[in-house]
TrEMBL record:
Domain F-box: start-end pairs: 37-77
Domain of life: Eukaryota
Sequence intervals crossing the membrane: none
MF (Gene Ontology): SCF ubiquitin ligase complex binding
Protein name: F-box domain-containing protein
InterPro entries in UniProt: F-box-like_dom_sf (IPR036047), F-box_dom (IPR001810), Leu-rich_rpt_Cys-con_subtyp (IPR006553), LRR_dom_sf (IPR032675)
Length: 299
């Protein structure tokens, strides 16, 4: 099946954006004569929801231009996601199937040209779908993806070697195995987010990842990192020492709410990482402040 055919098939399905069904396509106006290339350039800068839902309904030319793969090389779904959560708090805990549908739709619209995707609450199915079709992916942010496991993450690492930016914060079923795979297969990787900010909200079973073992893996296999976030993890002086020795090119390091770290270890990082310009250190809370709530200041 051709890429355009896939798009047409998926258009038969309805996506819940919190509103009713849209109005029929409006009559064509003078804007319909704009060149398709110019329209695609403009549409690529629109918010995700408008690009997906509104633009195709204006006129036939706009609809055709909105299907240009160029429009879907860079997609940020965060704004749409946060809007839905504001409307219905519990939607966040039951949205995985809808997110998977939308991620697959974006991949199909891009015809394999997807470069940047910022989303959340992904599943193994959506990540494998990306891995199988988007070899030129350079940016992937998928925080809060509780269902993503090493199986799909390692496949993504193997099939998307051009990754430069990766955010797997609050992905509790991704382990050292996946992080090592990203380090081995993605030599251009220079930004990693591995924050553990919402571990109480989602109450995962088993030990919380993001501690010394992961820091050691990062220090061995991601030596070109320039930006690293490990907020609210169980990182200790041992893991931090490995990071300082192995990731000497770090320019920014965020360790907010990593309360197990000592002042001495933090000082040693500043000495060993000569390029470190932006260093967010943990805050030691007063006795009457619950440290579990401090993450909101650094999210």
């Amino acid at each position: 099946m051709t890429c355009k055919a896939q798009q047409d098939d998926m258009d038969e399905m309805q996506v819940d954006f919190g509103e009713g069904r849209p109005d029929p396509v409006a009559p064509e106006g003078p804007w319909a004569n704009l060149l398709g290339e110019a329209l695609s350039e403009v549409f690529s800068r629109l918010p995700f929801e408008e690009r997906l839902k509104t633009v195709p309904l204006v006129c036939k030319n706009w609809r055709d231009a909105s299907y240009d793969p160029y429009c879907w090389r860079k997609v940020d779904m965060d704004g749409w996601f946060h809007k839905r959560v504001e409307e219905d708090y519990w939607w966040e805990f039951e949205c995985e199937s809808k997110v998977e549908f939308l991620v697959k739709k974006v991949v199909d619209r891009s015809c394999g040209q997807l470069r940047e995707l910022r989303t959340m609450h992904c599943s193994d199915g959506s990540i494998e779908y990306i891995a199988e079709r988007c070899p030129s992916l350079t940016v992937l942010a998928m925080p809060n993806s509780l269902s993503v496991t090493d199986k799909s993450a390692t496949k993504l690492a193997a099939n998307c070697p051009k990754l430069q930016i990766l955010d797997v914060s609050d992905c509790y079923n991704i382990s050292n195995q996946a992080l090592e795979a990203f380090g081995r297969n993605c030599p251009a990787l220079n930004w990693l987010g591995r924050n553990m900010l919402k571990k109480q909200d989602f109450m995962p079973t088993g030990p919380i990842p993001g501690g010394d073992e992961e820091a050691i893996v990062v220090s061995k296999h991601m030596v070109r990192l320039k930006h690293l976030e490990m907020k609210k993890t169980s990182l200790s002086d041992l893991g931090l020492a490995h990071l300082a020795r192995g990731c000497g090119q770090l320019e920014s390091l965020n360790l907010a709410c990593c309360t197990a770290l000592s002042p001495k270890a933090l000082e040693e990082v500043s000495k060993q990482c000569a390029n470190l310009k932006d260093f967010t250190k943990p805050i030691t809370p007063r006795m009457h402040v619950n440290p579990e709530f401090l993450w909101v200041f650094f999210e």
